[in-house]
Every structure is written in structure tokens, then in C-alpha cells.
Amino acid sequence: MDRRAFVRHSALASLGAAFLAGCSAGAGGGSVGPTVPATPTPKPPVPTGRTVLGIDTFAAQGFAALKGLLLGGGFYEVALAEAVKSIAYPPIPFLDGSVLCYGVYRAREGEVALAALEPHLWARFCQKAGLPELVEAAFSPASPENPLYRTLCAFFAQRPARAWEAWAREEGLPLRAVR
Question: What CATH code is assigned to 102-177?
């Protein structure tokens, strides 16, 4: 369940908040009922079944119960990954290799990773690489249909990845050989 769906059901949102508040306070269980004042208990030195990936497993139970109520009753199993997604920040755009200025490119031997998201880094890369036609195309698609992408791929195919990394270090560019 995403955050928007959670907020849309405002009557159930308070129920979900009660689940989560009870869980984060250490009050226990994931069952609906009177809240028992929580007494601080020392955390074990190693993660137990109660804490996995920094998420309280009882929070996942709360999401499962809430999902069950929204879908008409019953109990629905919810993976911890779904609980994490419901409270996580949205993904940061362009960090998936879908644009020219941030991606992994095949070199003559190996691969290089280019991370020039900031305009001044991309401009310096284009200048040092002798590719001024790419300066305005930092966020254009990194797909074979894009002629500028093909130009950049052909550029990196000229040398081995280690040679590109040495060049980038000399020039102060955000490019490294993938190991």
C-alpha cells in the first residue's frame, strides 16, 4: 500500500498510526486493543526477528492488518519490502543510468562508470573529452536510438577502462573503471 492510499482512508489512517505507534514504542504486538504503557527495554546487541532491515516487523503486521481492513476483512500477508516502500522516500531521478551524464559504458576492455550529474562536471567532461556537442545533452536518454548516446559509446570504446580511469584522475573527472 502506498502513502497516498493510506492517507485517503483517513478513518483507517488513525488505526494504522496506532499500530505503528504501539510498535515503535515497544508496546508489542500488532493486535488492536488497549495500549499498555511501554517500559523501556534494552535492545539486544544483535537483530532479532523483531527488527529486520531497520523496520519493526510489527509495523509490517500493522500494514497487513490495515490492508485486510481496506480489502474487506481477513488477514493479508505483507512482505517487509512493501512496508519499507510505503514509508520510504521516492526514488531519486536519473540515478538509474537512463541519461548520458550518469551511467556505465563499455570500454575497449571492461566498463567505466560516469557520474557527472552536476552541470559543471558534465561540461568539464565534455570539454576534456573533445565532445562539445554533448554539453547541452547531459540529460538526454541513454538509449541506442539516441545518436549522442552512440557518440559517447564510441568515445569510450577507444581505450581500456583502466586507461580511462587514469585519464579521468589526471583531469579531475568523475569517471572510474568498474571492477
Answer: 3.30.1540.10
